[in-house]
Structure prediction request, 244 residues.
Amino acid sequence: MNRRFQIMMTVALASALTFSTLTVDAASYKLSSNKLVNAQTGKTAKGYITYNKKLYKNGKIFSGIYSDKLYKNGKVDKKNYYVTGSTLYKNGRIVYSLVLYNGVLYNSSMRAVGKIVYDNKLYVNGKIKEGIVLSSNKQLYENGVLKKGFAIYKNRIYFDGLLYGDTVVFNSQLFIEGDLAEGLKVYDDHLFLDGKLAPGYMLYNPTGDPENFEAEVLYYKGFIVKGEFVYEGMTYIDGKIVLP
Prediction:
């Protein structure tokens, strides 16, 4: 049974109990030592009784929840919002809408559960979550606010909170359609290995043909080796092999 259903059942039960509340003739009861008693017998009044516009329970002035209303000293609490226990009230009645109160987000009168965007801010379990968080609709937030500009989260890149769908280098890392690149990739004359600039010296052949030496390019830390350079006994000029 979920929490909302439990609340609805409680409300229904409380509504049914309303019929047992008596609004009595003032002459039938009286106050004795701050207790409501039967005027004729002097015995303590039983159950819920409204006397002089105040609610009593078993002779004592009532504070608490009754008939889906919040009472304080016998009268419906008319504060704008009020939390008792873990339930949110407004003007004495349970609040079922999505409401932010005292920095806490309530949903169906209870503290919100999960990730909810309210008034353009992300709340996690009712509070603004510090740090970077991915919302339920796959948007990136930082400290509750939609993240602006480029940002990396779990090896994926976002721009203005949305997954970036193009190819981009950010923080010296290569991303393709939002994901960190895998394997060897050349982008903008730079060689990347698993999204990062390839380490040390490395030959890359875009054709995949090991016999096609002329297609090979020599890189150092991801950059094409410039000028004349001898690598593994072979001469390269600006990264390209010089064949005899």
In short: DSSP finds one helix and 36 strands in the chain. The CA atoms of residues 206 and 215 lie 7 Å apart.
